[in-house]
Amino acid sequence: MDGPTMPLLESLLAECGRAEDTVAVHINHCMENSFYFTRQLERVFHKVVFIAVPYNDRDVPNAAEYPVYHGTRAADGYRLLRNGILLERAGTDFPAAVRRMIALALQNDVQPYVEQGKRVLILEDGGYHYPVLKEFLQRPCWRAAVLGAVEQTTAGTRASCRDTLTYPVASVARSAYKTRVEAYFVANRVVQELTRMLHALDEFIDFHDVLLLGYGIIGRSVAGSLRPHHVRLFAHDTDAAVQRTAQAEGCLPWDGVFRDDMLVLGNVGKPSFSTEMLRAFLNGPARRIYLASSSSKQEEFKEIFGPLQEARRLRYPQADCYRFPGGKELLLLAEGFPLNFYDSEADSLTYDMIDPVFSEM
Predict the structure, then answer these.
(1) What residues contact 256, with CB distance under 8 A and at least 6 apart?
(2) Phi-psi map region of 322: left, alpha, beta (phi>0 left; psi -120 to 50 alpha)
(3) What residues form DSSP beta bridges with 93?
(4) pLDDT by residue (tens digit) across 299-319?
């Protein structure tokens, strides 16, 4: 049996002429289907540079003939590499490490082509490149070179709106396929990984109380994937209309009280679990809660990373247990990274599912 392919993507690229004047910078997850997409992009662009966001310590393919920037994690921070060769060490801050990888890629592998008059197109999942490219755009040769960017996700689209840009950004984040089809499969993978990680902690997912922070496209889909597990769903969304939808679909409004062994899922793509919520847990009746994310980066629990350092940290399989004075425990799954990207042994989505998304890009 041959390996998986993306026939829609391949058929679209077969109809394209080569853009010999353009360098493509692809920023995406360190997963096999992202490497496949990069190989296909080589068919139509003069040069392709891939920046693999280091959600896990997956190795890059040895046979990659294009530049691949990637990272591995250690206790003291990230090791930033190009095709397996160490370039430099970075700190423990994940977004800063990714931005540094992008800066190295632009300087080392894209700058020479810009100086030759080539143009640059960014294809991205996550919105990482904007602050980095802003610095490069101070150079006259770069201002004329950047064609634009294509964003794959809502988080990336949101990032594009934080500043005034001098280049256009197209987004597929709200396409019919992503909202109606991809979200269903992403939610399934999130719940599958949540089930697996809880089982490694000697817990079943079934019959738990679950608090969904955010009931947007992913949060709503996660709710659908959780219902067969006979959980009791609570929803908390800052948008009143979305909150009403959640309740109309059977979710209970959250009253601000955490229940014992409650599963708390962040689905917003920005900080959703606040320091006030942490205080509510510490001052409330629950002795233990579990926190997990379905969204990109480590944004959902960013606000509490500082206060968590005051607790005693215990390492469990793919989880960190933070034990507070008095015995209360907060278990953070996958270090707050999205559950479906954390396992280095498995891709989040299958080739045939992601094929239309890459084709839209």
Answers:
(1) 280
(2) beta
(3) none
(4) 899 999 999 999 999 999 899
